[in-house]
């Protein structure tokens, strides 16, 4: 408490003087599809975003695609100079899975992909900027998507293999690894209703939950591989990145619903389905959520719960694997009763 007050007073006095304290670090972040372009260069194969924006160009991608984007594949030096001019301490970027592993698997490692990310990482370090790497910012190899992507339970193994390649290639210089960026988007949004996110498969009531389970297992695979094989040598950190929202009722009429959402602590770190299995004491899904979905599934005539259960082994595999939690911006959300079939519940 005392430290906290001292820190706030320090920060406050610095802000009043118009200066940030010297220990305050600045960073900026990008993701590969959003900046790299060069979508079909060298031996890179299409990711789900390449496919999505080529097929659903008009409606879903606002008449745009990432074919060229900010052209950072070619202009990374200018981009890094701009980052240095800004005085950034950190730069977070993501690696495109298919630029490094054109088949999606480690049977083929792209020389050009390795060259590109080596130059980027070395360029950052040369400018005194610390690299933070996101391993998955929503760009699954299209061929893995064709096999079911995040709804295929084998993806834990595929992601583990990819992670091992990245740690091996870049772990000597990259000390902060972010496994999966915002599973809420990878799963709930990408498998949502009228989804505007690749792969654009609308299956909010089941697909999104299969994805959630497999995403957490994939994160756990990567975390444990690093912990055993790389951490002793490189002393880095690995985290999932979760997006956390504050929830409240949309109107006075929905106040009770807001309170229920809040009481499930969806708004806190504790009970979000993408967070609870990793960071809670018990592990597994939050019991209240598991019960609600199981009951709903039964009433809907399913023979199983649409929220796929974890085995005890899986619960223990995922639980407690953290030293750090990277949080994406938190904002607030209003909740109301869902329209029929609008959102999974
Ligand atoms: C790569 O994509 C561009 C469109 O962005 C296209 O003009 C070009 O022909 C493609 N190159 C190859 C080798 O397919
Ligand atoms: C939610 O969090 C609050 C504060 O930590 C706690 O008192 C309450 O019991 C929690 N609710 C549930 C349903 O876990």
Automatic annotation (TrEMBL):
Name of the protein in its database record: Uncharacterized protein
Pfam families xrefs: Glyco_hydro_1
Keyword Signal: yes
PANTHER family named in the record: GLYCOSYL HYDROLASE, LP05116P
GO biological processes: carbohydrate metabolic process
Keywords for the protein's UniProt record, in alphabetical order: Glycosidase, Hydrolase, Signal
Taxonomy, superkingdom: Eukaryota
Family the UniProt entry places it in: Belongs to the glycosyl hydrolase 1 family.
Any one Gene Ontology molecular-function term assigned to this protein's record: beta-glucosidase activity
Signal peptide extent: 1-18
């Amino acid at each position: 408490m005392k430290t906290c007050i001292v820190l706030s007073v320090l920060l406050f006095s610095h802000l009043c003087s118009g200066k940030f304290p010297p220990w305050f670090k600045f960073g900026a972040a990008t993701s590969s599809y959003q900046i790299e372009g060069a979508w079909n260069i060298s031996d890179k194969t299409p990711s789900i975003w390449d496919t999505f924006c080529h097929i659903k160009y008009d409606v879903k991608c606002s008449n745009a695609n990432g074919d060229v984007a900010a052209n950072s594949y070619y202009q990374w030096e200018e981009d890094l100079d701009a980052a240095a001019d800004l005085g950034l301490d950190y730069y977070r970027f993501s690696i495109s899975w298919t630029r490094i592993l054109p088949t999606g698997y480690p049977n083929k490692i792209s020389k050009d992909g390795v060259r590109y990310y080596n130059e980027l990482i070395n360029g950052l370090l040369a400018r005194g900027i610390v690299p933070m790497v996101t391993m998955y910012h929503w760009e699954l190899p299209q061929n893995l998507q064709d096999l079911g992507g995040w709804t295929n339970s084998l993806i834990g193994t595929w992601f583990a293999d990819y992670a091992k390649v990245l740690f091996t290639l870049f772990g000597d210089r990259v000390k902060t690894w972010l496994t999966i960026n915002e599973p809420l988007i990878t799963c709930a949004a990408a498998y949502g209703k009228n989804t505007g996110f690749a792969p654009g498969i609308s299956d909010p009531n089941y697909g999104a939950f299969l994805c959630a389970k497999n995403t957490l297992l994939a994160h756990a695979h990567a975390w444990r591989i690093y912990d055993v094989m790389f951490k002793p040598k490189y002393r880095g950190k690995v985290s999932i990145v979760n997006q956390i929202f504050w929830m409240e009722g949309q109107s006075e009429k929905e106040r009770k619903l807001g309170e229920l959402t809040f009481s499930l602590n969806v708004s806190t770190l504790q009970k979000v389905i993408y967070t609870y299995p990793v960071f809670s004491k018990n592990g597994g899904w939050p019991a209240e959520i598991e019960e609600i979905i199981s009951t709903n599934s039964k009433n809907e005539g399913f023979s199983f719960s649409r929220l796929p259960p974890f085995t005890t082994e899986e619960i223990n595999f995922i639980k407690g694997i953290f030293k750090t939690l990277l949080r994406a911006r938190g904002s607030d959300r209003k909740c109301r009763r869902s329209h029929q079939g609008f959102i999974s519940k």
